[in-house]
Sequence to fold (645 residues):
Amino acid sequence: MPLPENKPIIVVENLSARFGSNIVFEGVSFQVNKGEILVVVGESGCGKSTLLKIMIGLQKPFSGKVLFRGTDIISAGEDEINNYRQNIGVLFQSSALFSSMRLSENIALPLQEYTDLDSAMINMIIKMKLGMVNLAGYENHYPAELSGGMKKRAGIARAMALDPTVLFFDELSAGLDPVTAVELDDLIIKTNEALGTTMVIVTHELESICKIAHRVVMLDKTAKGIIAEGDPQELKEKSTDPRVRSFFLRQLPDADYRDGAYGK
Amino acid sequence: MHSEKDWSKLYKISSEKKDSHLFVYLTGDFGLKNLNLFTNDIRKLIDKKKFQQISIDFSGISFLDSAAALALIQLKNYAGAKNTLWSFVNLTEEAKGIFSVIHEQALIKRPFKPKTASDNFLIQLGDAFLHLVRDFINVVEFVGDLLFAIFYTITHPQSLRMKDILFYMKRAGVDGLPIVGLISALIGLIIAFMSFLQLKQVGANIYVPSLVSFAMVKELGPIMTAILVAGRSGSAFAAEIGTMVVNEEVDALKTMGFDPVRFLAVPKVLASMMVVPILTIYADFFGVLGGMIVGVTGLDLTVNTYLTQSIKTITVFDIVTSLIKAAVFAALIAGIGCQRGFQVRSGAQDVGKYTTSAVVSAIFLIVVADSIFAVTLYYIR
Fold:
């Protein structure tokens, strides 16, 4: 996919995360460019979800900065954080739809809270968002009445309710069948192209990564930081780093890596 | 950030009339935050005069989101209803992209499932009755399962997870000591104070300690402790098991060949039955202590006199029946808490519903059991 212009919207600077004395990652720096789909990849336990939680303001890092349009959201006050949250949308791994609410109520919630629109306009926006994710007509359904893939799409509709600048996805297609996963990938690409929404996706679904990512940032558990960054196809075909190759080619790492030599 | 901006100043709308054709030029940012403002502005322009055609010029737009695009489509429909031709001109690539994902069919599509209207009174009454019957059957089934599981545990003591028993004894008993002690002392103090106000009129102050100890040991100690345990532990048992059901942990137990009732409910019930009687004795003691504060400070009784008078009133039979009552209450609280937990099917709302139900049902059962005890003990004595 063609890479959007190199205009950073989020800049992650020297970010470190720890759980007690356990270092998850340190010195992580990268930027998310306007309109791009950036995929954060890496083996389980490398800190992908921790990085995502820090970027969406749910967790404080040990040190470092996350700049959104120049404002550091780590040291920001409550008002600035709230403003930031109105500019982002998040799709959680479990979709996190409110089970006691219909889909229409799930999507209406941020619109009622942050806008002064009347209920007729809110209803039209709900119909539009559900149409965007191919769920037109499902506004009166409860989340429990939907399949896993439909829940994900409904989660995307809710995340897009306020037309956010950046969308974050945690394990986009985890637990979904291949056909549904491909449908979601297509939806992501279409939404990105049509609306120009910047997207940060945490996943380790190789096929998705190669299909949807403009750029990939790869974290490594042993190195406790970024070991590769760039176009997924190029990384897959040209990287000489055995850790990157083993990930993209779905091979077991070589003996040196298993012994931890690369982390030393 | 966008939301900090004054959105009313971020856009400009100008117009030009050529015969009965209106050209509307949009300049600046158009989004969710100023949707009402610019929609009203454009609507005013449209309503001013009857036009045959309206063209909306996008060349000056620097920001457009899907909500704003939807509002413009709504305006198009509004104009269409007045037989006015409407066109979008000089659309930017971004605007084209946004319009491409707004499916006009989706906007008029009827919901697959209509919002259900509430049933009439008779149907609701019938549903409530059926619900009660089903609930009763569920409870009876669970009691059977629980008794069977307890019998199995007694006959196979090695299957009992002592670690769990100790854990729940701590949670239901030790952790509840401060609140049970405080509430019981205050209850004892209130009874002493209220009875003192009445008994002093007939010069029978000496009976205040008797009244306090009698009320605490016979009724208030067991019942107050049980209510507190229902609030603290009954709800916790229901929430814990309910969350396990939602997370499919109970299904995992079943597929591994474990009986969920024996694995999850028995330790809680047994631990509660062991610890609540001890907690009741503790509550009785603090109740008497609370009464003694009034007795010593307000009635000029010595500590020794107060305690002697209190002990004189209580018989061994009273203490033993109080302990039996406490054990029965504990079984009811833990049993109904676990049963309600197993009734959870899905979602956080279900967990909340059955946790509340666990506490309400436990208190109801405590009062029913206490009434049965009151009548039965009267005849036994």
